[in-house]
Every structure is written in structure tokens, then in C-alpha cells.
Amino acid sequence: MKITSQIFQAHLKCNTKCWLRSVGQTGKQNAYAEWDEIQNDSYRQKGIGRLLEGLHLEEYAFSPKAKDLKQACWHLAVNLSLECLYQEKCPSEPNQKISSIAKRTPQESLSRSQRSGIVLATNLHVVQRVPPELRGKNSQYIPIRFIFRNKLTIEDKLALAFDAIVLSQTLGHSASYGKIVHGNGNRISRIKIPNLLGKVRKRIENIITLLSNSSPPDLTLNRNCTECEFETGCHKMAIEKDELTLLAGMGLKERENYHKKGIFTATQLSYTFRPRKRPKKLTNKPEKYHHSLKALAIREKKIFVVGNPLSKIEGMPVFLDVEALPDRDFYYLIGARIRSKDSDTQHCLWADSINEEETIWRKFLKILASIDRPVLIHYGSFETIFLKHMTDRYGGSPTGSDSAEAIGSKVNLLSLIFGQVYFPCYSNGLKEISRFLGFEWSEPNASGIQTILWREEWQNSHDNSLKKKITTYNSEDCEATCRVMDCLTNLTTSNPNIPGTSPIIVHAESLPRTGHFHFRKIQFALPEFEEINQASYWDYQRDRLLLKSRVSSKRMPKRIRKQRRPKLKVTKIINCPRPLRCPFCGGKKIYRHQVYKKIVFDIQFHRSGVKRWIKKYLFGRYRCAACWVVFRGSQKDWGKEKFGVNLRTLSVYLNIGLRLPQRRVSLFLNDVLGFGFYRTVTSVLKASAAAYYKPASEKLLGKMVNGRLIHADETKVNLKGGIGYVWAFSNMEEVVYLYTPTREGGWVVDLLKEFKGVFVSDFYSAYDSLPCPKQRCLIHLIRDMNDDLLEEPFNDEIRSLASAFAAIVKPMIETVDRFGLKSRFLRKHKKEVGRFFKSLTRRTYLTETAEKWKTRLLKNQMQLFTFLDYDDIPWNNNNAEHAVKAFVVLRRDLVGNSTERGIRDYLILLSVCETCRIRGLSFLEFLRSGERDIDAYTSNRLGKSIPKSIRAQGTPLHVASFLSDLEGAEGHS
């Protein structure tokens, strides 16, 4: 591979130009490029002639051989062609000068095989040899380049540094500086080479990487295209492919970000625009430019308006356009178009030389002074710079005059259009917008660069036809600016006075604010995802799959109970019998010492409803006649609490079973049953029930740990003074809820260290340490994948990956729907799974999202299809999700109102409630039965004896001790 100076300079302009030149392609001739090359050649020949004047023949050499450089005796060498192998650094080059290379990223670094065989070639204009001052030292060689332009660019300096690198590697020692002769005065600029070495070497390595690929680089259009011979071909190819690079102003990083999202064309980008409501605090700030809205305007061929781009202009409009030679900062033509009620007047102020520049500036100021309230209107920043330079050089109008105010408050139409008016053009250039509005220039190739060529030709020939071309072009620019001004003024109407066309003006604020992510039914990008999602609903699994998987499931009957409000009174008076003997001495002669009473609030359940039942216990204290001891009767039916068991049952059922808040439960007890309780009575009843059923919850967890399946999920809950997390563990018959103050999952590993079954969960990393087979929820994976599909609808890579994944999952769901969760029918799908992951490993994705999904799937490939090897193992985590939903309904009334102790009581009772619901048992009937063992109650309801294994099974010791330690530690935290 050979990298010449022409290829290097082409890379400084554009990657595409560099690649096309490297493969030997030639483009359509460009007038400016040809003129620039001719000017450089002529300037170089004249400059070399001046250097050789007065030198003897032995003091200079034409095209000397590279091998004779070290023994040369000449002072100047002309047209020196050199070639050398590319090296990381010159042997005598100091290390600190290439520090930028040492900091290269691995992606930017080149392998040794890529660097081997790389040849650098250049043709140096002139090389100056400076003999050493001391014997034994090397001669110093200085590369010299000739550039006809007055202003040097960074590209010119890098081209000189490239020459210096080739020269240094050929000689074996570095060149410390080089020279560039440029401009009309033949000025000599001394350029320090070491400061540019890092940039040049980075460019060289980019060229090596670019040319190593057989395919061309991504097409890029930039400001250098107007000077390039490949302009026509590149622009035509970009339009055919609808490339994003057509949208002027979009940077390389922004295009790469869109490419990572799968957006490669302007049409695809147009569908991503979403109108946003502008905050009031940003009202006075400039509008943000939206490339997606620009693409939408091009696709719809409509003008889109954001905000109010132009207010009414009061005064006489003066449309300004200036022509100049930027290389010399010489403004030679000032065009001013004055609009009046009768007609427009055009002024063209021409300067033959730079000495007349002040003259035309003074004339321009006189024209402004003759106008009543002039308003300067121009397009672009070029005229802004012109006004500043002229004012600094020659002064402006008197302070306070109308002309001075016009110069100070000039109107730039481009700044009004930017971010606010989106024409259906690829750029906001005056030529494109004016042509869309129906205006055409008399010269088809008219442009600012073309006027530079015309001016140079006129400078040599003084042909009046060339001068007329320039002044006509300038007048037409003023007229085009006037046309754009009229369009902006009429944007409030439906038709902005565009000849031959009637485009529709659309205000961006009126566009519908549509989006994929709203609170509604999930919209799936693939029909296969919709079918898979339908098979994951909890009702579907309970009604169909569990019957086929031989798991019993019954629905709990729903009952509606009503009760009239009775009067408040004591329902029953109970007299406790007196004791027959003294409990101390056994004496039979006993006297009643004092009478006491105890009121117990309770209810009674009837077939038709519930009834308030207030019991009044009468009991006494007695004195023994023999030993004179005072004692109380031994019979006691009410316990320590003043509330009965049935009242506690009803309160818990309303609060937990029917999800009524405690405040509403209190209202029900007071308003319907006539109790005059305080609001805190339901908390007392809940705590009492939680203490009573805590062993039942621990036994459910112990049975689950000794089982063969656990589903797990977690959710956040807000408490007084902070937040906590509720964990839901479930299988086909049990549900257990636990509370922790943090989301750290280390305690789950300690709790389930003896679990040998399959653990089904989402993709939370805390579950990775469990020493048991794991099944990740496929519906979680599919929904996440679907979200990325909707967010990046044009990303073909993620769509193909998702389609391939859906193609292997959908047959599994069909098998499950037909035969149930039986491994002997599901194992046949393991071959397709293996082929999918094997092909996925070989695939290489360009977009960031597709690569992210490849990494995620390969990371979890051993945990996605575990259900194929086990019976009755679901492929989704909807059991745990359904359990979490039950808590979420209850959580709505707990936000910020409950404590850690209160939430634990809730979770104990909710565990019992949801277990009864899953088994098809009545939670109310279970509470009324007084039974603590749900298995025993289930067996009694089904009329079967309790199996010995269940009867003997209690809470495992490590589970009971772990829960007690966890609760004690959290209670003191």
C-alpha cells in the first residue's frame, strides 16, 4: 500500500475523496479545482525561479536521487521525489513529540501486519540543505512548499509536515522545521514540524485503516465539496441512497448516533420527530434545531414553522449582498436593493482595486443616509463580518443617525430561519431556498466560488462581460433575499406567495404528540410477540395450563353479604359460676367479696350476614372463711383482649381480603355495625391476627424451600421515614411475602441455600448467586426487546434478531398450549435453541442496540430455556408478578403511612390470603375456622386425610432462625 502526498491531502478534505483517489477514479472536472491547481503550479514555478536566481549550477540540483542525499553538496534541491517505509517514529525523533500516538485507543491502534509494507511517497517542491557548523554533525534539511493563497490553513501545514516525515525517515533524522512561501508578497512562514507530528501520524493511520477495507467509507458531504471533482457523483449517490449526510449541519458524531439506532436515511429520520411543549423559562432563548423536522419537511414537501420567526419590520427595507476575495480580505462589490412602494432600486458599487474599497464604502453610507428609517436585511454571516470590518477600517455613520442604527440593528434572515422555519430543502442555503420559492439565477453555475474565478479573469483581461456577470449575480442575490423575506412575512397565511406552487405551511405545535410509551395496552412490533404475550396471562395459565400439568386449581366462590345496622346494646350477659372450693386451703365455705364485669366486642356470622355481638361477663372475687384469702374465679373465656375472634376475622378480611384501607374498615365497623371504635382499632386487630398466623406464613416458606419451584419478584414500598422493598416468593400453591429495608439480594442466597428446585425470576443480578437451576422470564425479555423495536423502528439488525428469537419461542408456546409443561414434549426444541445461539455467536452487529442484545442473550443463554428440561416449570414469571400485583393494590393505601412493623404484619396476612386464593379456598372461611395450618384446612375441605409428609413437615430450622434474625436485625436498624 502506497500513501502519496496527493492521497494524504485528499484525506484532509474528505475520506471519500481519499478512497476514490487511491483506487484511481477520476471525477467530473471542477472549474475551481482546476483553477486552484493552475494557480499553485504557476506560483510554484515563479517562486522556484526566484530562489535559483544568482546560484551557480553546483549549488542546486533538479530531481536528485534519494540515496545521494547524505553526500550532497548542493544548497537547494528542486522536485525531490522520495519514498520510504512507514515507521512508528523516526529513530532520532524525540519520544515526547509523539505523545499523542502513545495515547491511542485500542480501536485506533494498528496491528503490525497492517503497518508492514506501507510506503509513504511525496514530491517535495524544494529542499534546502544547511551545512553543519561543526565537523561530524549532520546537515539540516528544510522542506519548502509554495502556496499562492495569502492565508494559510491547517491543511497546508499538515501537508508540509507529511513531506517532513518522509524526508526525515529517508535521512534517518528528523527535520525541526519547514517553510511555506505564500501570498502576493511571497511571505515566508516558518512552521515547527514537531508540533504537527502527532496529528500527521494519526491521519496516516486513519488512511491505512481506510484503505485496508475493500468497501468504500460512508459517504460524507461537507463544505469542501464545492471545490472537489467528485462533487456531482457523490451528491447524486447520496440522493439515490437518501443519506443522512444530505442534511447540512449534521455532524459526524450525530450521524453515528443515528446509525447506532438503525437510522440510515433521511426518510427514516423524518418519522422520529415528536413535538415538545416549550417551557416558559426557554421562551426568550433560541429554538433548538431539529434534523428530524427538516427531514419531515423534505418528505412531506411542506414548510414547517416553529414559533414566530419574523415580526413586522418597520422602516425601509434595504437588502444587502457583498462580493469579496476572502483570500485578500478585499470587498470589491456592494449590492444594495432598496424596496419602495413604487418599485425596487438596485445599487451595485464596484471597486477596481483595493484602493477603491473605502470609496464604495462611503458611497454605501451615503445611500443609507438618504433613506428614511433604513432597515438592513441580509442572508448569512458574511455581510455581518463585512459591516464590522468596514466600520473598523474606515469608520461608520455618525452616532445617532438612521444609517448607524440600521447597521447596528441589521436583520440576518438565516438566524430567523434557523430552528424556526424548515423548508423542504437539504440545507438552509440561499440558493436552495430561493429555488424552492421559484427564483432562478441567470447563470446556471452561479455561486460565490464562481465569482472568484470571474473576478480573477476580469483582473487579467478587464472584460466588461465578466464584470456584468458578477454584478448581475450580485443583484440576483439581493432579489433572492427579498423573495425569502416575502415568504417569511407571509408565513401566517396558507400560501406564502410562491409562484407555480402552493405548499402547505404546518406549525409544528399543531402536530399530534404521539408516542409508543403510554399507559395503555402494549403495542407489539411483531405479531409473534403478541401471541407469546397472550399465553403469559395469569388467568390463561390457571384455567388451561395447570389442568394439563396435573395441578389442582379451584376458584374461590364470591359472596355478597349485606346487614342492616342494629341498635347498640349488650347482646348477651354471661354470669361466671362461683368456685366450689378455695384453691388454697380447699375450704368449702366461701363468701363473695366483690363483683366485676368485662365487656368483649365481637360479632357473629350468620347465613344472611353478620351481627354485632357484645358480651358482658359478670364475675366476682371471693373470700375463704377458713384461710381468709381473697381470690378470683378460675373460669375465664375472654382472654386479655377486649375484642373477639370473629371481629378480628372480619377486620382482617375487609383489610386484606377485600383490600379496604384500615380507615374504611373502621368506618364500616362504626357506621354499619354500630361500634364506636377509634381508627387505631383496626391496627390492633391486624397486629393480633399477624401474631396468630405468623407460624402459618413461616411454614409456607419452609414448604416452598423444600419444594421444586419458586417464582420471585420484588417491588418498592414507601414507609414513614424512608423506603423498603417487598419480595414475593410463590409457586403453584403458595405465596409468601417478606420485607427488607434494602434491595440487596445477599439474604435471598442465605434463605434459599437448601433449595434444590428451579428458581424462576426476572433478570435481577442478585439472583445469579443461587446454587440451583434458574429460569429467566422470557416475557420480560420479549417486552424489553419490543420496547427497543418501537424506539428504533428502522433498525433492521434488532428486527432480524427479534424475529429469529420469536421464531424459536413461538413453537415452544404452541407445544405448551397443546401438551402442557411436560419436558418429554418440550425437549425437541433444544436443537433450535442451540442453532440460534450458534448463529448468534457468529453474527457481527453494527448498531449499538443490536450488539447490546447479542451480549444479553449470550450472557443468559443457559438460563433462558431451563423449562425445556423440567416438568411443570413455567417459562415466565407471571406467578410472582401476579403476587406482586396483589401487594401493589394494597400498597396504594400504605404510601408513607405504615411502619416496618406494620408492613410485616400486612405481609404475613397477605401471604395467607393469596395462598388461599391460589388454592381456591375462601380466605374468610379459613379465618373463621381458627386453623393455622393451611394444608390441614385444605385436606379437611377436600375430605382427604393429611399426608404424613405434610403433617410431619414443619418450618426448616435454618428458615425459622433466619427469619427471626432478619426481623430482629431490621427492627433495630
**Which residues form runs of ≥5 with pLDDT under 50?**
96-109, 551-566, 944-954, 969-973
Assign the CATH class of the largest domain: Alpha Beta
> What proportion of the residues form beta strands (DSSP E)?
15-25%
Please give the largest β-sheet.
7 strands, mixed
| CATH fold topology of the largest domain | Lambda Exonuclease, Chain A
The helix/strand class is alpha/beta
Overall geometry comes to elongated
In whole angstroms, the N-to-C terminal distance is 70 Å
Q: What is the mean predicted local confidence, pLDDT?
A: 83
Counting DSSP H or I runs of 4 or more residues, the number of helices is 35
The rounded Rg comes to 45 Å
The appropriate CATH architecture of the largest domain is: Alpha-Beta Complex
Whole-number tally of structural domains: 5
State the total count of DSSP E strands.
Answer: 24
Helical proportion, percent range = 40-55%
Q: Would you kindly provide a written description of the structure presented here, covering whatever features stand out?
A:
The chain has 973 residues and is of the alpha/beta class. It has five domains: 2-212, Alpha-Beta Complex (Lambda Exonuclease, Chain A), CATH 3.90.320; 316-510, Nucleotidyltransferase, domain 5 (2-Layer Sandwich), CATH 3.30.420; 577-635, no CATH class; 691-775 and 877-971, 2-Layer Sandwich (Nucleotidyltransferase, domain 5); 791-866, no CATH class. Helices cover 42% and strands 17% of the residues. It is built from 35 helices and 24 strands. The strands form five sheets. Strands 1, 2, 3, 4, 5, 6 and 7 form a seven-stranded mixed β-sheet that branches. A five-stranded mixed β-sheet has the order 11-10-9-12-13, sandwiched between helices. It has a five-stranded mixed β-sheet with strand order 22-21-20-23-24. α1 packs antiparallel against α6 and α21 (645-657) packs antiparallel against α32. The longest helix is centred in the middle third of the chain and has 26 residues, at 464-489. It is elongated and about 150 Å long. The relative contact order is 0.06. Mean pLDDT is 83; it is low at 96-109, 551-566, 944-954 and 969-973.
